Amino acid sequence: MAKSSDAQEFGLPLDLEPMEAKSADELPNEEGWQFEPKWDGFRCLAFKEGDVVDIRAKSGKPLGRYFPEILSLLRGLPLERFVVDGELVIELEGRLSFEAMQMRLHPAESRIRKLSASTPAKLVLFDFLLSPDGTSYVDELLANRRPSLERVMNPHLKPAELVLSPFTTDIEQARRWLLEAGNGGTDGVVCKRLDGKYEVGTRAMVKVKRLRTADCVVGGFRYSTKSKEVGSLLLGLYNEEGELDHVGFTSTISDAERKVLTRKLEALRGPPGFTGKAPGGPSRWSTERTGEWEPLKLELVVEVRFDHVTGHRFRHGTMLMRWRPDKKPSQCRFDQIEQAVPRDPTS
Predict the structure, then answer these.
(1) pLDDT of residue 7
(2) How far is Cα 94 from Cα 305, in angstroms, rounded to an integer?
(3) Considering 22, 38, 209, 327, which one is annotated as catalytic?
């Protein structure tokens, strides 16, 4: 039985926010970058102090109860302490399955135990934040953090349970990874400065996907015309003032999920909805026939695919990709759709 980490000191705070990435259309073609596959799972920070372990999602919420096999794995490592950054993934028939990850977020412990045995997760590591001797690596350059991760973790790797993410400084290899993305393993490439520190909670990395996506807060919804079922979700991102601005909509909701989704949304109906720029009436941004919309409590996050951004809004309707229960609404900010400008390494 895992000990509680509620009052445990890990050398770094449990609410430490992972370093994140801005979207870009192309890989930075300059010296000084390290490239890694972008894994399709749950990003997490893993903490260990003695036999007490914890796993935290990007939202800061604990993930350990959903992945007991990973807690056991971390507790069994013959290392006194560490904090590492990585991704939880589940592989089914040679392909990573995000759907299998989502199935783990289940309230029943018996169901979680069954899934952890039948479809065990593994932890892919790619960054190093605290060493076994208690030294923080947050302010170390990536060029020092990655070799330290390898030195500490290499003796304990297990192909089906604990692995290190591959990396390269060769842009041609990164381009091959990008071409292969979306085929059951990764969904893009993450680019990191070799001379960069671990910038907590900052979009200091660059991510390039074959398809551009964004995580948005569902700030409201509209009913379908002449229907009592949901027709579209209204999407929001937080601006610099901390207000939720309406940025567009998605109406790609399958008929199979429409009824259940309607009940879920109606249960969350109420303020605040959008606290910044709110949806107006019909416009070129929307195909809805009515300007009426229902505000929601700000709890739901959804990943959508988009093509262009104009004037801080999605130019067209977006495609709903998946729900993101592993992310908290406050992490859905405009900075994720701003185009990253790679820094000149000579400056």
Answers:
(1) 40
(2) 25
(3) 38
The one-character DSSP state at 324 is -
- Domains annotated for the chain, with CATH where assigned, are 20-208 (3.30.470.30), 213-336 (2.40.50.140)
User: Between 233 and 335, whose confidence is greater?
Assistant: 233
pLDDT recorded at residue 283 = 39
Inter-residue contact 205 to 20 (CB < 8 Å):
yes
Residue of 289, 319, 304 whose CA lies nearest to 237 = 304
Q: What are the tokens at 325?
A: 């229960």
pLDDT at 126: 98
SS3 32: coil
Distance CA 122, CA 241 (A): 38
Alpha helices in the chain (DSSP H): 68-76, 98-103, 109-118, 142-153, 171-180, 255-267
Whether 38 is a known active-site residue: answer yes
Strand partners, 168: 35
Q: pTM here?
A: 0.71
CB 56 within 8 A of CB 63: yes
**Token pair recorded at residue 194:** 């070799």
Q: Name the pairing type of β-strands 213-223 and 294-295.
A: antiparallel
Question: 146 and 128 in contact (C-beta within 8 Å)?
Answer: yes
Please name which of 153, 180, 134, 234 lies closest in space to residue 39, comparing C-alpha atoms: 180
E strands within 194-330? 203-208, 213-223, 230-238, 244-250, 294-295, 301-305, 309-310, 313-314, 319-323
Phi, psi of 25 (to 5 degrees): -85, -25
Residue 25: pLDDT band with limits 50, 70, 90: confident
Nearest Cα to Cα of residue 39 among 83, 99, 88, 5: 88
